[in-house]
Structures are given as structure tokens and as C-alpha cells.
Amino acid sequence: MATLVRRLFKVALFFGLFFLSILYVGPYHYDWSESEARAWWNASDWLGIRDPDDLFIMVWITIELIVAVLAYLAIMRLWRCYRSKHPTGTGGT
């Protein structure tokens, strides 16, 4: 039962981090300059995607997913380091 709770907590932690990355990492404007629009059009044509907005959203979701994974890995490493120094979880008291 404890293993299930730990796994569910880890899944909830990851989705929480992903949600936070969507809120705080994403672009805050969607107005492209002419050169940006041309670059997105060229990239979407090269990749065979009809709408450059679809490519833009896909790129940002990938970036936000990478940020969430890196934050998750950092939290897990910090927790392992803390647990190895304080195996009882009391903070060394």
C-alpha cells in the first residue's frame, strides 16, 4: 500500500510540475514579427505541418515537458540526498 501511495505521489508531483511549467515557462505573447512568422512558416513547411501555430504549440509543450522532467529529477535527487543524511526523516534532531 505504501508503494502505491508513493507512486501516486510521484505522478501527482510530476503533473503538478508540468502544470506549473505551463503557467510560468510558456510564451506570453503570440504576436509574431514578420521575420518570426516567416521562420515559423518555413519550419512548418519543411516539417510538413500545415499550420505554424500547431508547430509553435508542439515546440512549447515539448519545452515545458523538459522543464518539468528536469525539475522532477532535481527534486528526487535532493530528496534522496536528504534521506541519506537523515534516514529517520527528523531533520537531524
Fold topology:
Elements: H1 2-24, H2 34-47, H3 52-85
Transmembrane segments: 12-30, 55-75
Keywords: Membrane, Transmembrane, Transmembrane helix
What does this entry show, briefly?
The protein is mainly alpha-helical and 93 residues long.
| Structure classification | mainly alpha
Give the overall pLDDT as a whole number.
88
What is the 3D shape? elongated
Task: Tell me the series of helices and strands, N- to C-terminal.
Answer: HHH
- Rg, alpha carbons: 20 Å
What is the share of helical residues? over 70%
How many individual helices?
Answer: 3
The major sheet is characterized as: none
Transmembrane segments: 12-30, 55-75
Keywords: Membrane, Transmembrane, Transmembrane helix
Keyword list:
elongated; 93 residues; membrane; transmembrane; mainly alpha; transmembrane helix
Task: Tell me what you see in this structure.
The chain crosses the membrane at residues 12-30, 55-75. Keywords: Membrane, Transmembrane, Transmembrane helix. This protein is mainly α. It has a domain at 53-77. Helices cover 76% and strands 0% of the residues. The chain is built from three helices and no strands. It is elongated and about 60 Å long. The mean pLDDT is 88.
